[in-house]
Design goal:
This protein has 227 residues and is an all-alpha fold. It is built from 14 helices and no strands. The chain has helices spanning 2-11, 15-24, 36-47, 51-57, 63-75, 80-90, 97-106, 114-125, 130-143, 150-159, 165-181, 183-191, 197-208, 215-223.
């Protein structure tokens, strides 16, 4: 099965897209150059067939193979515990922001299993591994920025301490989404937090880049920058 899937992936290679995507994901040298919509189509097809055999036998020599596995896990129809067991097996394979973020976006079963998935995410958020933490943070910003969870989300973001760039950027991104969606609670947090200066200032920058924040508010947000 794996050889057949790899053959299909190779047939979808776009050399121009390979150059584009390779430039966006530094330190990764195994990108073939397949556009994400094409991989999603393939993932949906696999998810309707014997997806368990595919996940148990598939390789991840190439970026697209890892991306495809993550997509299949998201599209697969199963119960929450089996879903989470496949998620747990996949997270250690994440070695770049693109696979991480696409994987998280696809885990839509989290919406119907909020508390179970919340408990599942906690060890990742307290991990020392950069992509464990980024996975946890991106899951928070994809599925938990709402009134019921906002205080818990901000507390968790405040407790993430890691020097990796992609962790800091994920936290900054998450804080900015918190502000866009729930500004009153988040502005209080922005005035009293223990984020490092880089992450805090990046969060402010991302808020000011949002089209959903008005000009007057952007002036206020810029004035909060740490020097």
């Amino acid at each position: 099965m794996e050889n057949t899937i790899r053959k299909q992936i190779f047939e979808l290679i776009d050399p121009e897209y390979q150059k584009f995507s390779a430039a966006l994901i530094p330190n990764i040298n195994n990108i073939l150059g397949v556009r994400l919509p094409e991989l999603r189509k393939l993932a949906k097809k696999i998810a309707k067939e014997d997806w368990r055999t595919y996940l148990e036998t598939s390789e991840d020599e190439y970026f697209e193979e890892a991306m495809l596995q993550g997509m299949v896990i998201g599209y697969a129809k199963t119960d929450i515990e089996e879903h989470l067991s496949y998620v747990a097996s996949f997270v250690p394979k994440i070695d770049n922001w693109s696979v991480c973020d696409s994987f998280c976006t696809g885990l839509k079963f989290a919406k119907a299993n909020k508390e179970r998935v919340w408990a599942f995410l906690q060890p990742y958020l307290s991990s020392k591994k950069e992509y464990d933490i980024r996975f946890g943070v991106v899951m928070l910003l994809d599925f938990y920025i709402e009134m019921e969870y906002i205080d818990r989300v901000l507390n968790l973001l405040n407790s993430v301490k890691h020097e990796d760039y992609y962790v800091k950027m994920a936290v900054a991104w998450a804080v900015s989404i918190c502000y866009v969606k729930i500004p009153d609670t988040t502005i209080e947090y922005m005035r009293n937090n223990t984020l490092d200066n880089f992450t805090y200032n990046k969060a402010l920058q991302k808020i000011t880049e949002s089209n959903r924040v008005d000009k007057k508010t952007k002036i206020l947000i810029r004035s909060m920058k740490r020097r």
